[in-house]
From TrEMBL:
Pfam families: Pro_isomerase (PF00160). Residues 117-273 form the PPIase cyclophilin-type domain. This is Peptidylprolyl isomerase. SUPFAM superfamilies: Cyclophilin-like. It comes from Streptantibioticus parmotrematis.
Length: 276
């Protein structure tokens, strides 16, 4: 006999699948590339027992399970960040992935000078060479400079998403790169997810294989996700403090694009990738 809890989970999954189909049709009609963290469904353990919940971000930037993400309890917190440097995001695009110009045997560091503080991260060129090479190329081209981090998730998964010069979740560099290092966090659990640890830097994508571009996300708290997002770096302890400050300020309700923007004004004034 099917229990009420099992039935509730079954109905939630069916509803999720129907919505995903509708969203896929909408994307096809509009032909918009939408680089975001794809929807995932995970089991969240609550004090009262297991509850089926949507924890991811849909391919069309709306939450799955049919509801907009709630603003965090800190949604009215004071903006802890400063004023952005003068300048605006670039608009340059490229048709193809840049040629390999890094050494996979060397160590690289990406430094983000932001309005909220400096975030430094070690990049794994050995396990994610295409990704690190692309980020070095884009940083050298000043692609990330003056771009706003457009999404903060505060429920289910805990990430800050950046790297889109349009600030809408739909922008990119004009080319895509292959997925890499997807087995970094072990085998999938029974719900199809693995845990992306706090401090992970990973690629966003459209929900389809090999569709990463320039958008990336910073994990500020361990998050269950499908192993579909290339992990390519680790945030420094000092950078994590900045990230936690941003997260503590909470997020706004979803906008017209489905983005839950951080209440903190997070702008990347300058991004650099350097060989150690």
């Amino acid at each position: 006999m099917v229990s009420k809890d099992q039935r509730r989970r079954q109905l939630a999954r069916q509803k999720f699948e129907r919505q995903q189909q509708r969203r896929a049709q909408q994307r096809s009609r509009s032909r918009r590339r939408n680089l975001v963290i794809a929807s995932v469904v995970a089991v969240v353990l609550a004090a009262s027992g297991a509850v089926w919940a949507s924890t991811g971000l849909g391919g069309d930037k709306s939450t799955s399970a049919g509801s907009s993400p709630s603003a965090s309890t800190a949604s009215r917190a004071k903006d802890p960040c400063g004023k952005a440097a003068a300048g605006s995001p670039g608009k340059k695009q490229w048709k193809t992935e840049p040629s390999m110009n890094i050494s996979t045997g060397s160590a690289y560091t990406m430094d983000l000078s932001t309005t909220c503080g400096d975030i430094s991260m070690k990049l794994d060129a050995a396990k994610a060479p295409h990704t690190v090479n692309s980020f070095k190329f884009l940083a050298d081209q000043h692609f990330f400079d003056h771009t706003k981090c457009h999404r903060l998730t505060t429920s289910g998964i805990f990430v800050l998403q950046c790297g889109d010069p349009t600030g809408t979740g739909q922008g990119g560099p004009g080319y895509t790169i292959p997925d890499e290092n997807l087995s970094a966090f072990g085998k999938k659990g029974s719900d199809g997810t693995v845990t992306y640890p706090a401090g992970t830097v990973a690629m966003a994508n459209t929900g389809q294989p090999h569709t990463g571009g320039s958008q990336f996300f910073l994990v500020y708290k361990a998050s269950p996700l499908a192993p579909s997002y290339t992990p390519f770096g680790t945030i420094s302890p000092a950078g994590m403090k900045v990230l936690q400050k941003i997260a503590a300020a909470g997020s706004a309700p979803a906008d017209a694009n489905g983005n839950t923007a951080p209440n903190a004004t997070v702008v990347i004034d300058k991004a650099t990738v350097s060989k150690d």
